[in-house]
Amino acid sequence: MNLWTTEIREQITYIKMAAWEALGVDAVFSGRPGGGSLPPYHSLNLALHVGDESETVLINRARLLEILGASTRQMVCCQQVHGTRVQRATRSDAGRGTLEQSSAIPDCDALLTDSPGLFLAEFFADCFPLYFFDPARRVVALAHAGWKGTMGRIAEKTLKEMNRCWACRYEDVKVFIGPGIGSCCFEIQPDLARRVAEEFPHHPQLLRRENGRTTWDLALTNSVILAGMGVKPENIQDCGLCTSCHPELFYSYRRDGGITGRMGALIGLRW
Ligand SMILES: [Zn+2]
Questions:
Q1: How far is CA 127 from CA 23, 38, 184, 188, 262, in A?
Q2: What is the pTM of this model?
C-alpha cells in the first residue's frame, strides 16, 4: 500500500507522506513544475548553490512553505557535501541557510530534531532523501544519501544519532525513501561495482548486470542497511520513483549533464 500521495497546489507538484500527516508530521518532496526559475533551472528550483537567480529561488521556497502553512524562517538547511556527518538542529538553528547558502549548517548531510515547527530541508537531483520519523519519541530526521552517503552508511549513522540523542528504538522508527536515480538508470563503473559487492557481500541483488552494463539499486541498498539495524521492513516505504526517468517532474544531475536545479525535501513536526 502506498503511504504517500502526489498533490498539486498553486501549480506546485509535490509528494506528501500522507500516512504521517495524521500523526502530526509534514514530510514532502517538491517536484519541478510550478516555479519561476528559467532554463536550465526551470522551474521550481529550490537550491541557492547551483547558479540560479537567488531572488527567484527564495520566492520558490516561500511558495512551497506557504502551501505547508509555514514560512522559510522555520526552515533549517545544511551545506550538503556527500559526507556522513549528522547534526541535531534546535529552534536556534531556524532560518539557517534559508536566505543565503553561507549560513547553512556546514559539512553536514543529515539533520535531526525534536523541535516542533522546525522544517529540516535538503536539496536533491538524483541522490535519495531518507525521511525518518519516530512516533514514540516524536523525533524526525532527514538524510542525503547519494552513492557516497549510501556507501558511508549515512542511514545507519542517522539512526544511531537518533538513539544517542533521544533513546529512539529502531523498531519504532518509520522511514520514507523519496525519489532518486533508480536502478533503471544508475549505471556504474566496474571499480565502484566491486566496492559495492565488497561492502554488501550478502546482497548480490543490489547490483544488476545486463548487456555489459552494471546498475546499482541505491534505494534497496538503503533499505538493506535500515533493516540490518532493526528497522521493521513494514516501516520502510520506498516511493520507487526514478528522477532520471521523469524529466517533466524531476531534475536529474546525471540526465541534465550537471547543470540543473534541485528538488526540496522537507520534514517537520507540527506544533
Ligand atoms: Zn530511471
A1: 27, 23, 14, 14, 10
A2: 0.98
